[in-house]
Specification:
The protein is α/β, with parallel strands linked by helices. It has one domain. 45% of the residues lie in helices and 13% in strands. The protein is built from 3 helices and 4 strands. The strands form 2 sheets. A two-stranded parallel sheet has the order 1-4. Strands 2-3 form a two-stranded parallel sheet. α2 packs across α3. The longest helix is centred in the C-terminal third of the chain and has 15 residues. The chain is elongated.
């Protein structure tokens, strides 16, 4: 779905006389981490990570992952961030 929407954006840019290569696609994710869910809105770290990896493969240039509302403490926030970083590997900087 993201890839087809991005193609539409790039086509529209071309039609407007703009270079689509200069555009960047950013995705903001505010998932609720649960044992079960429906990514991208909720799910396990593994499920959300798989969705984000797919988004990167579809052409997303930047992912903003906001975990503050789902973390129970500062340490939990750091642990979740570490879990996502470990799963997404070199795709995340």
């Amino acid at each position: 779905m993201l890839a087809s929407m991005w193609r539409t954006v790039c086509r529209s840019a071309e039609e407007a006389g703009r270079d689509p290569a200069t555009l960047r696609m950013a995705l903001r994710a505010n998932p609720v981490i649960t044992d079960r869910g429906a990514p991208p809105l909720s799910g396990t770290v593994a499920q959300i990570s798989a969705y984000l990896a797919g988004a990167a493969e579809a052409g997303v240039h930047e992912i903003i992952l906001d975990l503050q509302h789902t973390a129970m403490s500062d340490q939990h926030l750091l642990d979740l961030a570490g879990d996502f970083r470990a799963r997404l590997g070199p795709q995340v900087t």
